[in-house]
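Incident log, structure service

09:12 report received: a user says their structure output differs between two submissions of the same chain.
09:20 pulled the input from the user's history:
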Amino acid sequence: MKVLVCISNVPDTTSKINFVDENTSFDTNGVQFIINPNDEFGLTRAIWMKQQQSAEVTVVTVGDNSCESTLRKCLAIGADKAIRIDLKPTDGFQVAKQLARICRETNYDIIIAGRESIDYNGAMVPGMLGALLDYNFVTNCVALDVEGENAKASREIDGGIEIISCKLPIIIGAQKGLVEEKDLIIPNMRGIMQARQKPLKVFEPSEDEIKSSILKFEKPIPKGEVKLVPADDIDQLIDLLHNEANVI
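09:34 re-ran on a clean worker, output below:
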């Protein structure tokens, strides 16, 4: 069984975010990048399939050479090989098109991508990839069982869990629940040393039409100062809620 895990290289949530070039570009100076958390849940589930079902696990990303440390971490976690498509993408459709080309060259049984990345939160790539490849697609996936050519997946929906069965190949949008945070694999020294010997192939991008572009970024409006009201001063609280907050 061949499993492909799509990896996004995203800023750590503790990083201070700034923009340059008149707010048209993200400033990467001083920013620590990590594996997108939803992708890491998916990667951990893929490693379980490797351990339990002898699956071959490949990780892939669309990005420049700054992404290679993230891919090496994926290899240290347990992936067998890595692919980097040498392109700094501008939108989700471009990413999906580049991934689809790689997927057509190898018949993967399962493709795992995070349901969304924590930088842009677009939640587009897995679904578009499923449409481009004409694969079964399940997003918000919190459980996956595979027996032979059959897959059973559970996904979160409003008010509950939906259980779906289908034939392979399948694309899933992974999230917390597929594995739990306590199950995430921390690379050990042996894994880190082995990762240096595992193959990391770099592919040139294909020329694809770009469907959208970023005009500018805007930071959220800073929060105002907090006003503390004594617990016994109900009149002042009511006055603030009525005249300043305009909620009553």
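09:41 both user submissions now match this output. Likely a transient worker issue. Closing.
09:42 reviewer note: The mean pLDDT is 92. Residues 2-215 form a domain with the Rossmann fold fold (CATH 3.40.50.620).
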